[in-house]
Design a protein that fits this description.
The structure holds 2 protein chains of 2 kinds.
Chain A (H helix, E strand, L loop, with lengths): L2 H14 L3 E2 L2 E2 L2 H9 L3 H23 L2 H17 L10 H19 L18 H15 L3 H12 L4 H8 L3 H18 L1 H4 L4
Chain B lengths: L2 H12 L5 H13 L1 H18 L8 H5 L1 H39 L5 H32 L7
Helix pairs in contact in B: 1-2, 1-3, 2-3, 5-6
The chains are: A mainly alpha, B mainly alpha.
Chain lengths: 200, 148
């Protein structure tokens, strides 16, 4: 592969997340078939396509940018090692998500103490003091939610997923997703109630 | 439909998950129910706050080196696995040869031979036990309470 072609290919991968081989644009399923055969270039395509989504979800779980970066990368490594057991008829990301979620839960269980990171390292903040306080309270509230509620909040609000998409990711029925989200909102609404005079 | 069901529908309304029929049910209920009207307003305020929660982007450099980091860690791990397998093979081969030499050497007394073999046997048993425990812990214990 010439340097120019390699650069073009690299740009295609980083830009649109599409793998081109011998002038043929490959589907995700075809790319994953190559990954199953040990093709690391093909795996690069998968990693680049999903790295941001993986990072932000991990950030929601562990609430620390450095740990989120590390755990999302570790998840891609483990996914590559387990790729032979992956069914390419299924979409990659829900399978990867469940692997990463387990890794994050395991990490949180193993962490002897929660490393609280200053809010400005995780969130975009405006100048107003109230904005900061409100976000701080809400963010710490999300952190304390039970895992099944925390994950639907992360997927719904930070990944803008629908109930159906969340159901596919978590393997739970859409009705359960709706209920979990409802109870999570109820808790969070109560936590930030003081800011708006919201009663329980 | 009771208040609790309507409140769940209100939550789904803000999630953009209701069809026209369900929206009509809420609208009709809200006309006569101050409690659910209040819930509707509060949920609106909550959604407004949540919509302003924006996670900070890491530096662009982090995305540029992301794949390289994954690749390097992957490669390093494979390197360690190969290295460990190699060391194990060498140790077992060396151990086997040593035992063979000791048994064949007539100048070494029976008691010394028995002692050395017992030590080596013990090391092997401990090693196997350690590996088995590690595998058992990884397979059975590590994610025991983890939600699947």
């Amino acid at each position: 592969m010439s340097e120019e072609t390699a650069l073009q290919r690299d740009l295609v991968i980083h830009g649109g997340g599409i793998l081109v081989r011998e002038d043929k644009v490959l589907s995700e399923k075809e790319v994953l078939e190559l990954v199953k055969k040990g093709d690391r270039e093909a795996y690069q395509e998968i990693v680049v396509r999903y790295m941001k989504r993986a990072y932000y979800i991990a950030l929601g779980f562990v609430q620390n940018p450095q740990d989120a970066m590390d755990l999302s990368q570790e998840s891609f490594i483990r996914a590559f090692r387990k790729i032979k057991s992956f069914n390419t008829q299924m979409p990659f990301f829900p399978w990867f998500y469940r692997l990463m979620k387990n890794l994050c839960i395991d990490f949180l269980k193993r962490s002897s103490h929660f490393k609280e990171v200053p809010l400005e390292e995780v969130h975009v903040l405006k100048e107003e003091r109230e904005d900061r306080e409100l976000k701080e309270v809400l963010w710490r509230g999300i952190e304390k939610l039970p895992m099944e509620q925390k994950e639907v909040v992360i997927l719904r609000y930070f990944q803008q997923m629908s109930y159906q998409e969340i159901a596919e990711m978590t393997g739970k029925p859409a009705g359960t997703v709706m209920s979990s989200l409802f109870y999570a909102k109820k808790r969070l609404k109560k936590i930030i109630g003081g800011f708006f005079g919201i009663r329980e | 439909m009771d208040h609790q069901q309507i409140k769940k529908l209100i939550s789904s309304y803000y999630d953009g998950e209701l069809d026209e029929e369900q929206k009509k049910i809420i609208k009709k209920h809200l006309e006569d129910c101050p409690e659910c009207q209040k819930e509707f307003e509060e949920m609106g305020k909550f959604e407004e706050v949540m919509s302003k929660m924006e996670l900070k982007k890491p530096p662009k450099e982090a995305w540029k080196i992301y794949w390289t980091s994954v690749y390097n860690r992957l490669e390093r791990r494979i390197g360690w696995i190969l290295f460990s397998i190699g060391v194990m093979i060498l140790l077992f081969f060396g151990g086997y040869k040593m035992v063979e030499e000791i048994i064949k050497d007539p100048s070494i007394s029976f008691l010394l031979k028995a002692g050395i073999l017992a030590v080596l046997g013990g090391v092997v048993v401990l090693l196997v036990s350690l590996i088995r425990e590690q595998l058992f812990v990884r397979k059975r214990e590590r994610y025991k309470e983890v939600e699947k």
